[in-house]
Write a structure and sequence with these properties.
The protein is mostly helical. It is built from 19 helices and 13 strands. Helix 16 packs across helix 19. The chain binds glutamic acid.
């Protein structure tokens, strides 16, 4: 049964979603699912100057790849829609008017030049200019708190530009509750009178966000730490409207691998890891940023890694399926302090998932890579290859380097090891070996091993004298799985062909 838990992920479509944003979406999703609640996607696109057209689709695609779909949002179960703020813009004005009517907000006519001048003058005196209780009624600032009603009306009627500001109460200590951080106390005299409604007729983030959270019946606001400074205003807005406030939880920052400072795209570029879930092409300059998906990460490994960036289950267990995360996730176990991102740990998660994924699933991922190389192989054969190399792979793209010799003969031979192991008598020995191989009937790994080893023992020479050149002939280097498994897989004809090749080339 659905509960009244309703959470939202409310990104602004200003570019690709950073992994911090995906983590916010994930925690919202986990919290919603854990409580049989609803996960809403709301696109906060009121700031037209920062709007990027392909960003919304990117966000939707990213959530889909991560398998954390929203229950309500643009184009889906639009019960409280529309879910794009730009399509709701006519709605906000009335709420700004309501606050003016109740004395919680006021018109301000100060031009940006005038405000700049105030700022500069304050700076010159070593002070910071804040538009609030301190100066809003002193007469130097032009607003409806000092102008007569008639004058205000006249200015508005004559088309003068204005904004609507929130009238922050004076001399009050706000006691705010955060689900992660506990009680936070704020002196209202330190707050500025934030703009709620802009001169372009659009609400600011603050007004639209609160109105929508209320209208969409959001019960818990789970968002990044960067929004904590907005909490006093948001909580005052609920009071001003007379609405019940949702509960708030501010998630810790994701820090650079060195531990200090917020993780940025530049850190990723420098250390060679993606900070975006999917590849992203910048609409304006065509720049392409890499993504976890294209870099070969499994979505479930990526999500598992992200879940641990700021949360832990309090046990040793690290590998969690999405269902297990839903069961185990608890805001109480989200930490207050920043979570250090580790590219190595991220790879480790991928490797763990690689080992636990069924061979068949990995085979389906490998087949197209083989096809691209012009290799058509039986699925059963590829599956055997996958099972023998996967323990050494982190990504599917590693498979080819680890297994090409199962499909094609080596193009080159490792020079250093050829020098060391391909000696004067080796070609003769390999020719003899070809005869032995030719005579083997049961070409299973166990039997070829038995027969070839018997032959070597009979000749009273060291195993290495045969095994190393044999491996070089088949693989091109001294690496790879058990040699007799390779022989059994590629078969008698191919084994002999590769030996003949090596005799000719080395
Ligand atoms: N639109 C804000 C953002 O881009 C949402 C902040 C919030 O969740 O309240 O992150």
């Amino acid at each position: 049964m659905e509960s009244n838990v309703r959470v939202r992920f409310a990104p602004s479509p200003t570019g690709p979603l950073h992994i911090g944003g995906v983590r916010t979406a994930l925690y919202n999703y986990l919290f919603a699912k854990k409580h049989n609640g609803t996960f809403v996607l709301r696109i906060e696109d009121t700031d037209q100057t920062r709007y990027v057209a392909n960003a919304e689709q990117y966000i939707i695609d990213a959530l889909e790849w991560c398998a954390i779909p929203f229950d309500e949002g643009p184009g889906k179960n639009e019960k409280f829609g529309p879910y794009r703020q730009s399509e709701r813009k006519d709605l906000y004005k009335k709420y700004a008017d309501q606050l003016i009517g109740t004395g919680w907000a006021y018109y301000a006519f100060d031009s940006s030049e005038e405000l700049d001048a105030h700022r500069k003058q304050h700076e010159a005196e070593g002070k910071t200019f804040i538009y609030n209780w301190h100066n809003r009624e002193k007469g130097r600032l032009v607003n409806s708190l000092v102008l007569s009603d008639d004058e205000v009306q006249q200015r508005i009627n004559s088309g003068e530009k204005f904004v609507v500001r929130f009238k922050t109460p004076q001399d009050e200590t706000l006691i705010l509750e955060d689900e992660i951080r506990g009680t936070i106390k704020i002196d209202t005299n330190t707050l500025d009178d934030k703009i709620l409604f802009k001169s372009d007729g659009m609400p600011t983030y603050h007004l639209a966000n609160i109105v929508d959270d209320h209208l969409m019946e959001i019960s818990h606001v789970i968002r990044g730490e960067e929004w904590l400074p907005s909490l006093p205003l948001h909580s005052l807005l609920y009071r001003a409207f007379g609405w019940e406030s949702p509960k708030f939880a501010h998630l810790p920052l994701i820090l650079k691998p060195v531990g200090k400072g917020k993780l940025s795209k530049r850190d990723g570029d420098k250390l060679g890891f993606p900070v975006f879930p999917l590849e992203y092409t910048n609409e304006v300059n065509g720049d392409v940023s890499c993504g976890y998906k294209e870099d070969g990460y499994f979505a479930d490994a990526f999500i598992n890694m992200l879940a641990f960036l700021g949360w832990n289950p309090g046990t040793e267990q690290e590998i969690f399926s999405l269902e297990e995360l839903v069961k185990t996730f608890d805001l109480k176990r989200v930490s207050k302090s920043g979570a250090k991102f580790s590219p190595d740990k991220t790879k480790w998660f991928n490797q763990q998932y690689m080992q636990s994924k069924p061979d068949e699933e990995l085979t389906d991922l490998y087949l197209p890579i083989l096809a691209e190389k012009g290799i058509i192989a039986e699925k059963d054969y590829v599956q055997k290859v996958v099972s023998s190399v996967k323990e050494r792979a982190i990504f599917i793209q590693d498979f080819w380097g680890l297994s090409s010799f199962f499909f094609v003969s080596p193009k080159e031979y490792d020079g250093k090891n050829v020098k060391k192991n391909w000696k004067e008598g080796t070609p003769e020995l390999m020719k003899e070996l070809i005869d032995i191989i030719n005579s083997i009937e049961d070409f299973s790994s166990e039997n070829t091993e038995k027969e070839i080893k018997e032959w070597i023992s009979g000749k009273e020479i060291g195993f290495g004298k045969v095994m190393q050149p044999l491996r070089l002939s088949l693989v091109g280097k001294l690496a790879g799985p058990h040699l007799f498994d390779i022989i059994a897989m590629i078969g008698k004809e191919e084994t002999i062909k590769r030996l003949e090749n090596a005799i000719e080339k080395l």
